[in-house]
Amino acid sequence: MSDDTFVSHCDALKIAELIEQAAAVRSKEEMLDLMLGMRGLITFEYGTSVFASVDGEGKLKRAEAINLTYPMEWLHIYVSRSFHEVDPIFKENFASYGLQYWDDTFRRCPAPRDFLSLATDFRLERGYSLGLRDGLGNGGSLISFAGNVEHHPRTERILQRLLPHLHQALTMAATGTPPEQPDSIVPGSLELLRRLKDGDSFWDISMALGISEGAVISLTDEIAARLGVASSRQAVAKALASGLITL
After folding, report:
1. Where are the domains of the chain?
2. What is the C-alpha to C-alpha distance for residues 162 and 23, in angstroms, rounded to an integer?
3. What 3-state class would DSSP assign to 41?
4. Would the CA dihedral through 198, 159, 74, 45 be positive or negative?
5. pLDDT at 180 over 60
6. 241, 229 in Cβ contact below 8 A?
7. Which of 1, 21, 131, 228 has the fewest CB atoms within 10 Å, counting from its CB?
8. Of the given ranges (25-34, 74-83, 142-151, 197-206), which has the lowest mean pLDDT?
9. Does this chain's domain 3-175 share its CATH topology with 187-242?
């Protein structure tokens, strides 16, 4: 069964609204509004986001947090006790990125007892985290939704669909650097980006553009590289944020 089976028409409309909102994010306040808007799609009590730089060994160098509803006392404890050094969620995110359901990560990589005990006290023992590597490859994003979060394929499909857009919005809000429009993006590339944005497959695009599917894949990789991202979805998110394409 396709993951798309779990996403309704209403979900798809709300996802489109959030993608449009994410493309316009330029400040921390707008990032917070975007995260709050996620409650129109998934249920959660606590939300936070972090844009971090890490060194070659995965050790934290700098972090910029944009917190929605995580308890400030927990964040103070987390920072003062350097819990990022033992938190399996944090370590897994900046090692491989992607989507994590916390129970799954804790089963693979058990956390220290005192960490889990405190997290449970704050009702932060269950949730989802997701992130992407930044274009320079020396850090990236970590976005978490915790509390009463449903563990369901629908939730995961929604988060995966929105991940590149949440990442792009967080990058903009945390760094304050507007996305640039590369001079080397040509009209044919924009058409490919527009079709990727609309959900066309590589095969569909190859038929529309009159080129091979392999050529479409190669061109997509080239566009992603020029935009400084790692995937077609990130390329679409950055193209929307920079105004190269529109919804």
Report:
1. 3-175, 187-242
2. 11
3. coil
4. positive
5. no
6. no
7. 1
8. 197-206
9. no
Give the H/E segment covering residue 108: helix 102-108
Query: From its phi and psi, is residue 209 left (phi > 0), alpha (psi between -120 and 50) or beta?
Result: alpha
CATH fold for domain 187-242: Arc Repressor Mutant, subunit A (1.10.10)
Number of H helices, E strands in the chain: 11, 5
pLDDT recorded at residue 47? 97
Average pLDDT, the chain: 87
Q: Where are the alpha helices (DSSP H) in 25-86?
A: 28-37, 72-80
160 backbone dihedrals φ, ψ, rounded to 5°: -65, -40
* Residue 168 contacts residue 26 (beta carbons within 8 Å): no
Task: Using alpha carbons, select from 95, 96, 134, 120 the residue that is nearest to residue 228.
Answer: 134
pLDDT in tens, 121-147: 999 999 999 999 887 666 789 999 999
Range 3-175: architecture per CATH: 2-Layer Sandwich (3.30)
Q: Are 147 and 216 in contact (CB under 8 A)?
A: no
Strand, helix or coil for residue 47: strand
Spatial neighbors of 227 by CB under 8 A, at least 6 apart, are 135, 182, 185, 234, 235, 238, 239
Give me the torsion for CA of 196, 247, 52, 36, rounded to 10°: -130
Look up tokens 């936070």; give the residue: 48
Residue listed under structure tokens 């529109």: 246
The CA distance from 25 to 36, in Å, is 13
